[in-house]
Fold each of these.
Amino acid sequence: MEKTDKSSTPVSFNDLLSQTGGFGKWNWTLLTLCYISCVLAASNHLSIIYTAYSSAFRLDSGYSEDFNNQCGDTLEKVEMNTTSSTYVYDSSVFTSTVVTEWNLVCKDAALLPTLTFTYMLGIALTNLVAGAISDAYGRKVLVLSMAVIHIISSFVTWFSPNFWVFLIGRMFVGGSIHSAWAGLFILLQETTPRQHRTLTSGLMNFGWSTGSMWICFLAYFIRDWRNLQLVFSLMSLLMISFFFLLSESPRWLLASGRFDDAREALQVIATKNGRVLDLKEFENTMAYLQKEIFANTKTSFLGEMKKLFSIFLDLVKTPKMRQRTLLLMPTIFAVGMGTYGIHFSSRFADLDIFAVNMIKAVSQFSIVVAYMFILKYVDRSKCLWFLYVLNGIVAMSFYFTPSGARPIVFVIAQSLFSGNYYIIDTFIPELLPTPTRNFGFNFLEFVSKIGSSLAPFIVELGGAIDSGIPPLVFGCVLLVSSTSFLFLPETRGKPLPQSVKEVEDVPGVTIAGIVRSKLC
């Protein structure tokens, strides 16, 4: 009778996590590793604000001591002993940056935004491949391989003898740390009992705020870009600890048919959590879950790539799925462009660069905390539509705001961008059915990073005309994209869709649909 009762009770992997101690010492260790990856990722993503700071300059002609940002080819018949490409830079903010070392001004000014463009492009491209690596070879393999690449590329970037080595090094730095973070995030979510996942997601978001504050603190005391990059390189050595502390995801091992390895991994987790397993209950649960695993569990990288293409077709093949995907793309593109673009625009805020970046890092931390509570009580689609419109208006108002009030407007706009990114990242998985959720989320993150990679060109080229143009552009793009939320279904309190068929059969309630029904 006892056996029948147990067999009739639904069993899930969450039961195994509960048996191994729930959220114990092992889980906190993993969360710490994830937090480290967040700090490293945020530090590297935002470091270009300081390492590529554009100082005022003048020609080294001996005729003027004013930093007038005038190029040699704009002067007529300048008589000087040095060439027109020799410049003197204002060292009052930074003693040395990549701009001053490689003269990324005037005719070479266009090279500056390519640093961030290629960095974000490296993240976007790596994101697409990393998912296949993770599913084919495991979360641990992905994280450790990316850790090695990150450490090596960090030191290559520090040692760069020229601009092009620096650019390529940063591409690998960005792609590797972001993929390592993503792999750790998946591993953490797979080994965290469902009742604790809000906590772990929130704490990882705070890691980004910590990284933003940490890089600002470092840059304040270290004003030479190579010394600052050396600190980042030394920080990357923290990832060596991953080789000793990181375990493979037992959920992935089980799904891959490696039952003995999954059993061993779970026993290790139980031991580190101080839990003595009830072997009979544990084996019964394992036996039940093994029956749920398909017989054909072998996979390969090529097989995973073919599977990803098939999943991509699922995103666009049927009408409702195609509508959701196409409506989400401009929203994530706009917030990706604006979130990073507003970071790169911090020098236009008419305030000390260190003060404005520290203030916005603290405000970002605060708004994420506030949104964590707000999301429990408000509809996602309505909230996002309102906040996108508000954010767009605030960012656009920067262009018309007097210089004295610009720092306030800038911090508010940046905080709203960060908060919107947090909410849209929560909203997207709730819209996508289970078979497409992982790839769909990564694909939309790819779209987001395309927006982020274009942001520096808007900042550099638009800012050269008027410092208010970049936030104006980001606000306009966000405002236009907000219309998507009028046609996307509400998800609060709704179960996650389990299949593409469910999405097609139960399309959901939209803001536009509600308005239409009231008017008819």
Amino acid sequence: MVLFLAIFYSYYASVLPLIFVPEYTSYDAFWLGLHALFVFHTSCTALILHYVPHTYVDVLHKTAMHLGYWQMIHSHKKMCPLEPTWSESTLWPQGSIVKYKGKRYRGLVQQNGAIPGDPVHSRFYWFFSYPLLLLNFLHSAVMGSGGSKNTEISPYLVKSFEEAHAGGVNCMTISKDGNYLGTGGEDCVAKVWNIMREDEECLKAVCVGHKGYITCCQIIDEFLVTSSEDKTIRKWDIENDGEFILEYHGHKSLVNELVLTDDYLLSSSYDKTIRWWQFVTGECLKVFEGHRRSVGPLLYLPSRQNHDEDNIVDDEMSDDMVVSGSSDGTARLWNLETTRCMRVFSGHDNAILCMDTDNDRNVLFTGSLDCTIRSWLLESGEALKVFNGHQASILHIKVLNKLLFSCSSDRTAKSWVTEFGDCTRTYKGHKHTVGSFYINDGIIYTGCGDGVIRAFDAKSGSQKRLFKGHKYSINGVMINLRGKIFSVSNDGSVKIWDTIGIKSDQQIKDEKRMANAQIKNDGVSPSPTYVSEENELNISLNRSSNHSSLSSGRGTTNNSDEVAIDVNATDINDLDNMLN
């Protein structure tokens, strides 16, 4: 009965729903199989708990205690002729010594009726002698199937908000001035934290109103913007305790991604569309249609005039553009003014989960569920390179100068040379999916499904530090201007970590020497301010985008005022020389 019902539940929970999957939704057969396996396992243990109640376990326990247990006596002493021979008609008291088949046994329980040396009787006694052993084992199997807990606490933990959300924290964002941290969770609530305060009362605003879990959040000026599974986007006033201001209506399914662009807002959805909104009024200005399945990551590309007023190019690429990635395996380049699809980047065999461009915004990079990263020319749509090396889905990518960094479900993060598509480093040691990463000052920080943040030297690949404390998978990692790490997790907590001392004194000296040498080579006399305030300069140069990349593989904005995080130029030269 247990096996039949467990198979029945697995079929209805994993296989039957595929009949009703919309055509614009993709699914992975491997993870579907794992889901079916977990449902079967959990169903089996739950049904056993149901069909084997505690009263029946108590009967088995009493039987085991009546059966008793014999321990063999390992002794070279000859058997005493007065020692009795074991008989099944006798119930032997504790401490009795009997002979059976040429061996001596001692009774260990108050009464012993088992056959000495019989493995079946011994197993029965061991399993049911403790009344809660079976129930605790089954309970642990059921409750522990959702993932293991990491209870070790790192000494680098500065502050922890253990019950920040009543459920997993799905997304987070940091304001441009670095004062506020925004989070959104499974509890349909968004919160804003004043991270500049050192005391415990740093919760700035609580935004309640969504009817579904929060999928994305962004902070612009004094506003928090959130998207949700309830098909809506909402704007909140941070300075007025998270007061609700405006709701953006129009999407027909879950809203997946948000990008803020000056006075406008871009959103993507499972309804296969991208929408362009007027930020102040909430009016939907444009709808972009063309994808065959759900739309995920978005990249905003400002017009070329905004970046180079002295060299205005009068062509089709001169307008503001947006790039969208979809579960249909394609990325599309759209003209924001005309809603015309300018390019279709087709080549992936599965959903596109993340995207980025090079610094000049000439080359597009896409990461997919098909385990590959591809590069494309934005102007022509030409496919350039295929980055092979990951063994599972690509969840997040980031381009820094001539290097591309990626993380994957295969438990690794990697760095690549964008020009050639060659993998230069693999950051190993993770015990689960690497869903997010953040790069600051030559160190890559990875957030993993095992609840641990790992810090690696981006150049050498060596592991520098472990940040332990989360109980479940980490959904986002970010660093503010003060060098503090912020992390959110499925355990519902928000944690703050310290990075002081992560770089050795020798590394700092080498960086100063190389920086001064670079200044001399450029024909500029070294400035004492550069060396004495190097830490502040590094912080200002290594600001990243305001939007955290989470385990869902969401894309990031490409605003003109963002500054990419730089790995030392000397690192890139070393890699180029090595490749040549």
Amino acid sequence: MRAMQGGVASRREAFWQLFQGEEREIREEGERDGTAVTVEEITFGVDATEKLVKLTLDILNPMYLKTVDSLVEELPPGVQGGGQKNPLSSLLQSLLLSLLRDFITTCQQGLESSLCVRLAHLAETQLSSGVRDLSSGGSSPATERAHYIVTTISIAVEILVWAVQEDAEVESAFQRLSSLLTVHTPKFNILVSPLRATILEGISALVEKCHSLASLALQRFREFLASSLLYGMYSDAMISGNVDFATAETPKAFQQLRASHTTSVHISRIDAFTTVQLALGNAVCRTLLAGSQQSSDYVAAFLASLGNKLYTSDSGDERALRSAECIVMLLGQLAVTVGGKHGVMETVVATFQQRMFHPASSLDGSIVIELGKMGAKTGDHTTLEVLSRLMSQSLGETAASHTQRGTSSFRHIYQPMVDALLHVAKHLSGVEQRHDLMLRALQLFVQQGIEAKKASDRADAPSSHKATSSSFSLGLLLPVIATLAQRMDRIEDPSQRVGKLFRDFWLYCIIMGFSETEMGVFPPRWYSSVRDIARNSPLLLSMGAEQYLDKELEINHPLKIENIAPGELQE
């Protein structure tokens, strides 16, 4: 027993001496070296950096890692951390590589080529062992340990991308990462999502180092876009919930995961797909911009290839439809990120317009949602014009379809259209742009009220549909106008046009019953929207009330003298 305890003690002592001795040398070297670099509060010189890498290599040696785990196993159960299943070596390996990654990526001066070669070799070793552990068919790792394996591989990818310098090394790393992109791990598909995002970013970073790889990288991205892997992730995400606006920003869960080494952060299927889709869009943008430095045709050719896939997609086939929806999301990301450069925004909007309703399918709703995200992010005038026109056409047909009982080619985009306009209203940044959108929405509200009332007043229109045809088309716009009103200051001195729009708006609200909350005929959100609009609506004042009312009854569309009883007029 004493011999065993002595062996454990000697191994523990040797292990800690390795840490403490090298730490002192590195700190002393950093203080003496005039070429030192600073990372937060720790200063290292170039020579000290090499010692740090050597120390990391020594600790990452399988023999040392095995020693760490054996030391932990020999401790009493209460000291082992509650009998955790994850080996300490996995956590140690992930932390050391993370430290090394953070240091070299913030180093402002170049390191020796021999050191870069050693870093690349370290990254390659970690990639090979990590992928082997994840893909082992017989004994799959537990979920907690798999998390650390995925984290280790992700860090190794970043180290590899940073370390390679020569074109031959960059090409070799490119091939390595391309092969890892579609590694099939069905048990850990959600867990592996941040790794796939890191690989996509790594591929685009390699293209920025070697522009000749741009064409091959874009081909890899197109293959990944049509892969069964992305299709499966998207299908799982759609089962879990609504992914329409999920790709508008990076999920917080993955931001927390990349900033820490905890395994307690919940990752949803929507978060998993969103992270990969956003990383794919960012990687394509970086690759296109890098490739355009060699040839301006890269951007146009890639957009044309995606447009062709979109035009020829079979909306009746589920997998083809899901792939087309991913293409729509990617095109929207390109339009937002690249904007007007190389004519990307104009090309994407034109592509969406040509594809919509040819034929009509659920893909049209995805295009409308993406147009909404584009309009909210960029405030592009053309995009907002397209949305306004689609809204006018769809609401106009809404009123007609209620009275005529005909088929509607816009019915499938009603809800996506309202969701898209609401997204624009919530996120549009420019004050003037929000004001313009408010006026468009008010004008559309009044126009649709006029058309809806004309349709409901037709002699052959069923009386049971008259109120429905008018109120439904108008009520859809109330949340949009309310959202814009909440983000604007109260209008104190409106122009004549603005005053008339608000006056007609309130006349229709009263006639249709949107202000009668006690009736409960319409959805509660419509009533609350009317209250929100009223808070910032301009005061409607007039001089000479009697003459003004008589004239208003003669020329105003919502109120006609022949429709007003004498008693009501007297009131």
